[in-house]
Amino acid sequence: MTLQSTTIAAVTATQFREAMGHFPTGVTVVTSVDVNGEPVGTTANAVSSLSLDPPLVLVCFDRASTTLAAIRHHGAFVVNMLAAPQRHLSANFARRGFAAAWEGVGHRPGFTGSPRLHDVLAAVECTVEYRLPGGDHEIVVGRVRDVEVAEEGTAPLVYWRGGYTALDGTGTPPPTTLRATA
User: Fold this and answer.
1) What would the pLDDT profile of 72-118 be if each residue is shown by its tens digit?
2) pTM of the full predicted structure?
3) Whether 156 contacts 166, CB under 8 Å
4) Would you list the domain boundaries of the chain?
5) 24-167 has CATH 2.60.60.30 classification
6) How far apart are CA 163 and CA 143, in angstroms?
7) 118: which residues sit within 8 A by CB, 6+ positions away?
């Protein structure tokens, strides 16, 4: 395999997005509550564990995100890790310029009051520890305050090369990739 290199100055947003699309990521919905106590959420795959001691996660948000605004106000959020059958939740919360539809979305308030979605693989509930600039995004570091993990046997929802895919139980993505609609 030959890697093509590009000088830093020549890398476009499109090229960078295509390159990063080769890195499979889990799909999450990050939730919080707004200034009126209403639930908000956004689909995110720029999520990572950061530290075990203390337990920290980081999430990257577009600076114009309504979910980011809610997290700034509320000071807390939940990272809801989606299962393979929850592609509809990913699409619902990925709407740009529209509020996600909460009607019919099963959820309950967590420890911090942030919504925990029903039937997710795991929920990691956090309080904001730090916020850092990150180009056109803001990096939010959360201190993990509570976790909930589903029973084993459910595959994760995975995003890879511009579409959704799922693991087949052996750890191998199936040969076809479903295209994202959001």
Assistant:
1) 999 999 999 999 999 999 999 987 655 668 889 999 999 999 999 99
2) 0.83
3) yes
4) 24-167
5) no
6) 30
7) 106, 107, 108
